[in-house]
């Protein structure tokens, strides 16, 4: 390593990875196309550390939902506070329209019945990802003064 090269990336701890997922709300979801190539889309997600589950709301007709029904293998890439840190959560996703999953994603709603009726009209579904592998790195660089 030369003097001008910086520090090597370090693996994030489980606690750091979970905190990164908790702190962020957008990520890039990778699904598998029928031809085997990856498809990527930016998504809003919710992370449950207690369950080790990621939830993403979408509509039933979206490509990502159709691809997951065909091949459930997915990965979610989440950028940290700087370009040098990230987390990746991998798992086999399920697409569900179960009311409890829609409510869990939404959080607190004033009128659950009205909310669920609206979700049904929009054909909303939840992509539920039980995380089987979680990893990421950070490059601890201090900016020059």
TrEMBL record:
Gene3D superfamilies listed in its UniProt record: Electron Transport, Fmn-binding Protein, Chain A
Keywords: Oxidoreductase
Pyridoxamine 5'-phosphate oxidase N-terminal domain: residues covered: 14-135
Name by which UniProt lists this protein: PPOX class probable F420-dependent enzyme
Source organism per UniProt: Nonomuraea endophytica
InterPro entries: F420-binding_dom_put, F420H2_bilvrd_red/Heme_oxyg, Pyridox_Oxase_N, Split_barrel_FMN-bd
PANTHER family, alphabetized: HEME OXYGENASE HI_0854-RELATED
A matching Pfam family: PNPOx_N
MF terms (GO), sorted A to Z: coenzyme F420 binding; oxidoreductase activity, acting on the CH-CH group of donors
GO cellular component: cytosol
